[in-house]
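Field notebook, page 422. I keep forgetting to write these up properly, so this time I am using the form the group agreed on. The chain and the ligand, uridine-diphosphate-N-acetylglucosamine, are recorded exactly as supplied. Prediction of the bound pose follows.
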Amino acid sequence: MQKLAIQGGNRLNGEVRISGAKNAALPILCAGLLTGDQLQLGNVPDLNDIATMRKLLLQMGVKIEVDGDQIVLSAAHVDKLEAPYDMVKTMRAAILVLGPLVARFGEARVSLPGGCAIGSRPVDLHIKGLQAMGAEIHIEHGYIHAYAPQNNGVKRLKGARIFFDLVSVTGTENLMMAATLADGVTVLENAAREPEVVDLAHCLIAMGARIEGAGSDTITVTGVDRLHGASYRIMPDRIESGTFLVAAAAAGGSITLTDTRADILDNVLEKLQEAGAIVRVAGNTISLQMNQRPKAVNVRTSPYPAFPTDMQAQFMAMNCIAEGSAMVVETIFENRFMHVQELRRLGAQIDVEGNTAVIRGRAQLEGAAIMATDLRASACLVIAGLVAQGETIVDRIYHLDRGYEHIEAKLSQLGANIRRVT
Ligand code: UD1
């Protein structure tokens, strides 16, 4: 199993290019199922989750050509309308094939994701939404079997008004995709406003979909008979951007991110400034300079545009070596403090009660062997390793490879002493 060996203490300096967003690329790859024409995508990140999604689409019969960060999909002949358990259990986002399959082919068989490290994460909202659109759904042997209603021999979902009783990112994406080919108008209320939902909507609109309101909490989709091919460039990854910025704020130094966007990172940039960082934005670059020990900052996760749960663990790492105490409240996932145990192994002082962690900053962490438990927890442990004294070995970094493109190469480029060992 691969590990990362980090010698802490180096400041980070230099420039790093931000990759395309994993959480936009995954639904957009699934959008390729909605048309028999070619969908050409650019800025697709080279990540394990993307490879898993490609494998899944390939198994269904989708033709895929890859050239660097460009991917061309052709779903002209899809012969297997199924997402098997072994794929869904490694990547929950595989559930995103459900909406497109039922919408275009009238049926789908998708494994239930089951539990995962950061909580139970059910998919009831995806299912209820499809039922509201007339789909018949049976859960059998751990699989969701979904069938669109038939009218005069034509299988087609029907437009509906769907209210989400809690904000779900992939739930919104699944139902927005399903609605593009439905008969009539679908209104998604209390929809997720995340920038990745907006990116997906822009891609669908380029494919001929009629969508209004993406980015607000009410999305209206008027179904069309068919979608066509398009060419689309995936947005930059705001979580990768935020992770590098926090790493530099914790380790000190001066870095510039290129090919990124500051407008979707408002909350994160504000928190970094509160910690004492100097942040400058120019066009599609963000620079951060940190000349002091960070000040502790409180964080409370909430759906966009509030502070993202996917940045919670990284801020926790920074707070461990900050001046003062901070409170971190996680409101999205019930079990997203798995990194706390590992941070304690580095000497961090953290108390957890329910969904609240109180961190008392220490001047120094000490390197140790630690283990990654999920994707963002891994990023947090890497940041902690960068600031800890001596060597930190982060085990189980396959979690990290799911969502960060060439992270050790990018950090090395900024001056970190980090290498992959087997
Ligand atoms: C997406 C992101 C993930 C991020 C999360 C929250 C992708 C591929 N993943 O995950 O990185 O951490 O948004 O910003 O985009 N829930 C239900 N029933 C449902 C669906 C969700 O109860 O049917 C609950 C979940 O358990 C969770 C909350 O709603 O407590 C939010 O989950 P959701 O927004 O759906 O997360 P994902 O879309 O899976």
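OBSERVATIONS:
- The longest helix spans residues 238-251.
- Residues 23, 26, 92-93, 119, 121-126, 166, 168-171, 196, 309-310, 332-333 surround uridine-diphosphate-N-acetylglucosamine (CB under 6 Å).
FOLLOW-UP: compare against the apo run.
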